[in-house]
Amino acid sequence: MAKKRSAAKRILSEEKRIEAEERKIERMGRQELAELQKLEKDVRGYASHPLTRITYHDIIRGSIGAVFGTVGHFAFFYGVEIAETISITRATLLYLLSLLICFLFMYYSGFRKVREVKVKRFIPLRVIVIYSVALAVVALTLLAFGFIGTHSSFVEVYKIVSTNSLLAVLGASTADILGKD
Question: Count of domains in the chain?
Fold first, then answer.
């Protein structure tokens, strides 16, 4: 009987040791899981695509690209000549074409690689910012070279800016995409 009790005590003590070991392993497993979850959060923070943010640098980059797109070849001189012969409808179509080109250029050169749901809401905002910057640069360039001013009518400015918008949008979009980290 004493042998059975001593064997039972050994078994009981072995079971307690095993239970303690199991609790220790479970604690370690929970700690590892917590560490993995923390690492996953950190990785998600770094995984955001640079195109999903609009910064001051994006506006500067877009402005520089629009200047190169417009002034680089002095195409705006010819754009002013073309503007004299086009209608308001054609000028409006040029604005829409420029906007479409900006959207397609951004989407196919960077945004389609972004797998986040936010992209559907964000890409229109980014396109509008780059498009607006490009149009502002065109207007400022034309103002600097004396093609538009206080003497210019709205229709004249509208048509002249439209004929130069496509090159500016291409330049701004290119600079925006190429300037990413």
Answer: 2
Q: Sign (positive/negative) of CA torsion 63, 66, 71, 77?
A: negative
Nearest to 116 by CA among 53, 28, 40, 25: 53
Whole-number Å distance between alpha carbons of 162 and 138:
9
Look up the domain containing 111 and give its range.
50-178
DSSP state, residue 147: S
Q: What is the pLDDT of residues 8-24, one digit of tens each?
A: 777 778 888 888 888 88
Q: Which two three-digit tokens encode residue 158?
A: 């509208």
Please list, in sequence order, all residues whose beta carbon lies within 8 angstroms of the beta carbon of residue 69, skipping any fewer than 6 positions away.
134, 167, 168, 169, 170, 171, 172, 174
Summarised one tens digit per residue, pLDDT across range 93-107 is 999 999 999 888 877
| Beta carbons of 24 and 91 less than 8 angstroms apart | no
List the one residue out of 82, 44, 41 whose CA is nearest residue 164.
Answer: 82
Q: Assess contact for 134 and 62: CB atoms under 8 A.
A: yes
pTM: 0.62
State whether 58 and 113 are in the same domain. yes
